[in-house]
UniProtKB/TrEMBL annotation:
Domain of life: Bacteria
Transmembrane segments: 12-31, 43-62, 69-87, 93-116, 123-149, 169-188, 209-227, 233-250, 280-301, 335-353
Tagged with keyword Repeat: no
A GO CC term attached to the entry: plasma membrane
GO molecular-function terms, A-Z: transmembrane transporter activity
Protein name: Xylose transport system permease protein XylH
UniProt membrane topology term: Multi-pass membrane protein
CDD domains named among the record's database cross-references: TM_PBP1_transp_AraH_like (cd06579)
Organism of origin: Lactonifactor longoviformis DSM 17459
Keyword Transcription: no
Length: 386
């Protein structure tokens, strides 16, 4: 393989390489504690909201580097509404969940209207939303914490998938899920490659596809093995996977998904081609409101309470994960898998430093430097390509 091809591969998988190196570093520094089964499970539980919010934030960023500063406050507000309904008003859990999702959609539509159709800058609208919904959260909660959440609600988001297969110290259902995930991945990859070959499109060399597939399947299997050694598959992982798979499909396989990239690449040309760019902006923020409500569902389940400080700095985690995961600060570039890698990297850094007992102030410094480095890499790469 010549230097040019090596350079392309390194650039394409920079964050994957960084994630592996950072994981190995913290595994070494923590004496192996980083990869203990319970810590792997904690990595999922503690960062579920980041995976969900970052997926929605990607759609906003794709439209031209726009962001949503209100998501942390929206998570708090929707959680406050849900907690009040379920605990204080004794509303049916499933009805309360539907109301929470509906509130998220209404908030997304409200902000999307001003951004898409009135053309108020997203920074201003969402900054206002950050203040409005944080204030409304305190109004709904009256400054108090509501707890605990109903048991049937916690079972949905804060429990583990049933293990009918049993196993002596190893959750066999979890291991079977890992095998099925690998099989599905291989079928999708090789069917996709065969389809591209038939259509005459350029494809990766078979050797590269095989090596990448082996590595990914090994990571999936090792990850599921660690979960199987603890309590199995957390329910929250199932919810996160549903969000990731749905939005990965939307952004890569659907017409509306291509519109997000087109608007971020060149809005004027997109409008001239007959696409209603206002609707694209509206959909981006409508989805962000919906996914903020989803994040609220998993957040109050994990905390087992709705409190006025929930969601603090969540927007920073989501935005940082997107840029670290390869989304361009200029819009038009980024993928859901890339964002998930970025979110996982942030989660690994957080967990590793927590295990090492690093002061929280230094943790913020490290995360800030990682974010800055990712954006610098994006800007420098764009200048070189031009």
């Amino acid at each position: 393989m010549d230097k040019a091809k090596v350079s392309v591969v390194v650039k394409k998988y920079t964050m994957v390489i960084a994630l592996i190196l950072v994981t190995l570093f913290f595994t070494w520094k923590t004496g192996g504690k980083m990869l203990l089964p319970q810590n792997v499970t904690n990595l999922i539980a503690q960062n579920a909201y980041v995976f969900i919010l970052a997926t929605g934030m990607l759609l906003c960023i794709l439209t031209g580097g726009n962001i949503d500063l209100s998501v942390g406050s929206v998570v708090c507000f929707v959680g406050a509404v849900g907690g009040s309904l379920m605990v204080n008003k004794h509303v049916n859990t499933y009805l309360a969940i539907l109301i929470m999702l509906g509130v998220g959609l209404l908030i997304g539509a409200w902000q999307g209207f001003w951004i898409a159709y009135v053309r108020i800058p997203p920074f201003i609208v969402t900054l206002a939303g950050m203040l409005i919904f944080r204030g409304l959260s305190n109004v709904v909660l009256d400054g108090l914490t509501i707890a605990p959440m109903p048991d049937n609600y916690l079972e949905l988001f804060n429990n583990y998938v049933v293990n009918p297969l049993g196993g002596n110290g190893i959750n066999l259902t979890c291991m079977l899920a890992g095998v099925l995930a690998c099989v599905i991945y291989l079928v999708v990859v090789f069917n996709g490659r065969r389809s591209r070959t038939k259509k005459g499109y350029e494809t990766e060399p078979m050797a590269g596809v095989v090596v990448k597939s082996v590595i990914i399947c090994a990571v999936i299997f090792a990850f599921m093995f660690r979960l199987a050694q603890y309590k199995g598959i957390p329910n929250v992982l199932v919810w996160v996977l549903v969000v990731i798979l749905v939005y990965a499909y939307i952004t890569s396989k659907t017409t509306i998904g291509r519109y997000f990239y087109a608007v971020g690449g060149n809005e004027k040309a997109t409008k001239l081609s007959g696409i209603n760019t206002d609707n694209v902006y509206f959909m981006a923020y409508l989805n962000m409101g919906f996914l903020s409500a989803m994040a609220a569902l998993v957040t109050i389940a994990r905390l087992n309470s709705a409190n006025p400080t929930a969601g603090t700095n969540y927007e920073m985690d989501a935005i940082g994960s997107c840029f670290i995961g390869g989304a361009s600060a200029y819009g038009g570039t980024g993928t859901v898998p890339g964002v998930i890698i970025g979110a996982t990297l942030m989660g690994v850094i957080n967990l590793g430093m927590n295990i090492m007992g690093v002061d929280s102030n230094y943790q913020k410094v490290v995360k800030g430097l990682v974010l800055l480095a990712a954006v610098i890499f994006d800007v420098v790469s764009k200048k070189k390509s031009q």
